Amino acid sequence: MPDAAEQAVGEIGLVFALGIGAIVGSFLNVVAHRLPLGLSVVRPGSRCPACRTPVRAVDNVPVLSWLALRGRCRGCQGRISPRYAIVEILSALLAGWAFHVLVAQPELAGEFTAWAHWGVVLVVTSALLAASLIDLDHRILPNEITKRGMRAAPVICAFVPHVIIGHGGAPAWVPGAWPAPVQAAVVSIAGIAVGAGSIWGLGVIGTRVFKKEAMGFGDVKFLGLIGGFVGPAGALLTLVIAAFVGAVGGVGRLVLTGDRYIPFGPFLAVGAYIELLYARAPLDWYVAVMLSR
Ligand SMILES: [Zn+2]
């Protein structure tokens, strides 16, 4: 049982994680809006989408400002989409849940590697969320996220090997004598190859079968980026989860909006978030359910 002090640290940490997630979400709204337009994501500061009045700092607090102003601009009273607040809440919840799983466990409490692991998952989750929003809006997964992510993944994994060889250790094909950073970088590169290769392969087959382009090259690079952080097995599991979630979500979207186009990026992002936190666990759970029949 954790003592009272440990529990207090865990609760303060969770509030911290939720707050960081909300602030990051606020930034992701800016990224999702400006990146596809080729604008700087840093300057100028946020403006009202209707009257272009710069948003004052006091009106730029995630979620709370939107609620306080009832979703309207202080200057022109124009409507500000609830999507901004929804993205901030979603980002907060994803960061908070990751903290709960990766840091706020009795056996991990206070361990630096657990915090570093959470930090990397926060960054990757942010990239997934921004890319998903852009895919929904513009039907593209931007190179600024996918290509840069693929280049960064092996380096980040070398610095924080726990991200990719944490729970079960490195896969059996990686020589155990290699230092952990080298193992992590090699698994990351293999994850990029398997992630990108699997969607590329599916695309080639799909194009032959359906006689039209079945998968965008953005999806290829996106699962490459994801594989760079979850490894080859994680990339394949991400694809399987995305296919399941996409079958349900795609039909729901078709019914709700009548739009036949199904952006695959958001579904890959859902699978990737699950893999970042749980690795083999979904597969073990599925096998256990099948065997118990
Ligand atoms: Zn305004």
Please give a structural write-up.
This protein has 10 helices and no strands. The protein folds into 2 domains: 1-110, no CATH class; 141-293, no CATH class. The chain is globular and about 60 Å long. It has helices at residues 4-34, 64-68, 82-102, 112-138, 143-159, 162-165, 180-210, 217-257, 265-278, 281-291. Helix 4 packs antiparallel against helix 9 (265-278). Helix content is 69%, strand content 0%. With 293 residues, it is mainly α. The longest helix is centred in the C-terminal third of the chain and has 41 residues, at 217-257. It binds zinc ion. Zinc ion binds at residues 48, 50-51, 53, 73, 75-76, 78.
Describe the structure in brief:
The protein is mainly alpha-helical. Helices cover 69% and strands 0% of the residues.
- How many domains would you count in the coordinates? 2
Low-confidence stretches at least 5 residues in length (pLDDT < 50)? none
Largest sheet: none
Average pLDDT, rounded to a whole number, is 89
Q: Please give the number of β-strands.
A: 0
From the helix content, strand content and strand pairing, which structural class follows? mainly alpha
Fraction of residues in β-strands: under 5%
Secondary structure elements and their pairing?
Elements: H1 4-34, H2 64-68, H3 82-102, H4 112-138, H5 143-159, H6 162-165, H7 180-210, H8 217-257, H9 265-278, H10 281-291
Helix pairs in contact: 1-3, 1-4, 3-4, 4-5, 4-9, 5-7, 5-8, 7-8, 8-9
The structure holds zinc ion.
